[in-house]
Amino acid sequence: xxxxxxxxxxxxxxxxxxxxxxxxxxxxxxxxxxxxxxxxxxxxxxxxxxxxxxxxxxxxxxxxxxxxxxxxxxxxxxxxxxxxxxxxxxxxxxxxxxxxxxx
Length: 103
Description:
The chain is α+β, with helices and mostly antiparallel strands. The protein contains two helices and seven strands; from the N terminus they run E-H-E-E-H-E-E-E-E. A hairpin with a 2-residue loop joins strand 6 and strand 7. InterPro entries: CRISPR-assoc_prot_Cas2_sub.
């Protein structure tokens, strides 16, 4: 079990209420659980993924300690801007798509 943090932006009351039922809301849109099992964390993420298509201009990020991966921290994201985390010589970097050129 490890500390899990979820940060949300522009999510509905439904999502906020769900997260508040499983985690402590530290500040508006910031949720934390100091000792959450991997199974519970997966269930929370599954619910967020299922509900996310109904959200508009929202984003959700979940982080927790994961010793087996480079950087020791796992990150999942939903929403905009899309971010991909890549391992570059043992350093974890966030990669965003290049903005499209205006015609």
